[in-house]
Here is the input.
Amino acid sequence: MIKPGAGLNMASLAKSNVTTNVTVTGTVLNMIPDNPFNALANGDMLPVIIFGLLIGIILAKLREETQLVNDFFTQGNRIMMEMTHIVMKFAPIGIFCLMAKTFASLGFEGLMPLAKYVGCVLLGLAIQAFIVYPSLLVILTRLNPIKFFKKFISVMFFAFSSSTSNATIPLNLEKLSALGVSREVSSFTIPLGATINMDGTAIMQGCAVMFAAQAYGMDLGLTALLTVIFTAVMASIGTAGVPSVGLITLNMVFNSIGLPVDAIGIIMGIDHLLDMFRTAVNVTGDAICTIIVSFKNKSIDLDIFNGKKAPEETWDDITQF
Ligand code: ASP
Here is the structure.
């Protein structure tokens, strides 16, 4: 409805190759890699993701037997993260050049769609944080979301200012204990969530795709939209809980439907601000899921949650853990 990319005519700047004319069956079949190396070489993201998932599951199953391969991938991941950091150091220069080139051709009107994009992402994040999460809490546990937000707001602020889910883990654990959640549950779900549960990142990526598709004048079909949903969820799982990585994995989402990645250069300029907001949503999602899980497992002290009893654990207990 917002049409964030409308009015930004980027079709004249780069060619797009959006895959809108494929069928659902075709997309599902294309997800199965017949030659994973070919898919890697062609930047065919869906088969690469499926292949990566399968390898990961098998490595987890075989454990010690495949320790060497496991170490290889772990170290490969470290190398890629380091490379990403180096590339990100050059990002300001790259963004400057991309912005200058784009706005030199599009003129001042180009700024309006960018503002609409920011508004669109913020609206999506607000709906998720203040409508979807509280509703889940009420429907699944009948707990009062206001009581949750009162104690949890400091975690959201910390995530907002640091832009990293990982660095927020200790504070998140502390506040969940203050909400009566057992550490047995939170010490498993919070680090896991900080690594793989990134709703805010997926929302940003969805908006970014719509922004770019409209800027290129492309009408995304149902299949392309389903592909975007699937890849954005996968990309958010693959996003590390540190600043700006969601923007890197956004490449994968663009590639999956053949959108030119030039549009990422435009949104890069304002991504730091959005990263702050989406990280706050990411950590809130982890906490809400943790409360729901511990409620279902009867491992939440409802008196502590409702403020009738003081929490048993202190900050020291948690940091020692
Ligand atoms: N900064 C986000 C987080 O740590 C990840 C991202 O979307 O870039 O949760």
